[in-house]
Design a protein that fits this description.
The protein has nine helices and 15 strands. With 361 residues, the protein is of the alpha/beta class. It has a nine-stranded mixed beta sheet, sandwiched between helices. It has a four-stranded antiparallel beta sheet with strand order 13-12-14-15, sandwiched between helices. Strands 8-9 form a two-stranded antiparallel sheet. The protein is globular and about 55 Å long.
């Protein structure tokens, strides 16, 4: 189990919400060296039972607009997405980059603010962390280091493309969900021209195929900008497939980070993996939500959110009030964190109604 590379290992089985597939979840800290300095990167490793070796998939998270929110990043928040790739047979690792969650080190992804828009620099900072994590994970006896897929959302998608531009050994493909940097607000990206320049730079050297997934109502990188980024990347010579996903919720930027979004991109990922001659499962677990009726006080919007809540990872809680306020939080470090977050999101005289899919006492 390569214990010398992990500060702790804890294995437990989780069942996919809609089926009987069981996964091993392994919280870990990866001991990495980046530019000569030692760091610890918090991670969650998800795989099917067995000794392997498994092909490797590494998932990279996004970056919040507020610096103080970086510490709130949690690997478990993307555990459903990790299970989706694990179901294809990959050992899948959700890795917190430096200065996110409990990972050590200073933030290494600065693009020097909107005045300069040094996006290539920011993307390479993310790529350094991705490369370091893959280096450690590739040494595991249950990993096939000859077959690697880099997956990322938002800043993580942008960083995964920066990593792919290096054409590292073993990397066979990259999947970019709503990748980009520099979002200040809804459809407000500073120094768009320099962001496009960075995509062109990465596209000039990238040889591995990539799949891009952007929702029509992405509030960070709208459809017009997404097409411009694609055009610059593809014109530079990089092989890429683009999937324009339908609108998702209030903000399509969350398409990847929400468990309820998996049904929208699942088939596109399966086709891409198959077309890239990469491992693909013959069948995947059902994505049906558990058959739990919504609380009676919820209106139409609350019932819609209830169905989303049922597909999210555990350490989750749902709160509601008699006057139709509701709120929920999922994928937290602890159940108590989920309860606190749900009540905060509810913004009314609310009480906890459900925790981890079970009625609250």
């Amino acid at each position: 189990m390569a214990r010398k590379r992990m500060s702790f290992i804890f294995l437990f089985l989780m069942a996919y919400p809609g089926g009987a597939t069981a996964f091993q979840h392994e919280p870990a800290e990866l001991a990495v060296t980046i530019k000569g300095r030692a760091h610890r990167l918090e991670a969650l490793i998800v795989k099917l039972d067995g000794a392997g070796p498994f092909p490797l998939a590494v998932i990279s998270h996004g970056s919040p607009r507020k610096a103080e929110d970086r510490a709130k990043a949690i690997p478990n928040g993307l555990s459903r997405q990790a299970e989706e790739f694990a179901a294809h047979g990959y050992l899948t690792a959700v890795v917190m980059r430096r200065n996110y969650g409990r990972s050590s080190g200073e933030w290494a992804e600065s693009y020097d603010g909107c005045k300069f828009g040094a996006y290539e620099q920011g993307g390479n900072g993310s790529a350094d962390d991705i490369a370091a994590a893959i280096g450690v994970l590739s040494a595991r006896p249950d990993v096939d280091a000859a077959t690697i897929v880099a997956i990322g959302q938002s800043a993580g998608g942008f960083g995964s493309l920066a990593y792919a531009a290096r054409n590292p050994k073993g990397l066979k493909a990259a999947i970019n969900f709503a990748g980009g940097r520099g979002s200040q607000g809804k459809w407000d990206v500073c120094q768009e021209g320099r962001l496009l320049d960075a995509f062109e730079v990465f596209g000039k050297t990238a040889k591995v195929p990539s799949l891009w997934v952007y929702a029509e109502n992405d509030n960070y990188f709208g459809p017009n900008l997404a097409q411009e980024m694609l055009a610059r990347y593809a014109k530079a010579g990089a092989p890429v497939i683009f999937f324009k996903a339908p609108p998702f919720g209030d903000d399509g930027h969350r398409l990847f980070s929400r468990g309820s979004g998996i049904a929208i991109w699942r088939d596109q990922v399966r086709k891409f993996l198959h077309a890239s001659a990469l491992p693909v499962a013959a069948a995947l677990p059902t994505l049906d939500a558990p058959n739990l009726p919504p609380p009676s006080m919820l209106g139409n919007r609350g019932r819609e959110h209830w169905q989303r809540y049922l597909l999210e990872p555990d350490h989750r809680a749902f709160a509601a009030s008699s006057d139709n306020h509701f709120g929920w939080r999922s994928g937290q470090r602890t159940v108590e964190d989920a309860r606190t977050g749900a009540l905060k999101n509810c913004k009314g005289e609310c009480k906890i109604l459900n925790v981890d899919g079970k009625p609250s006492e």
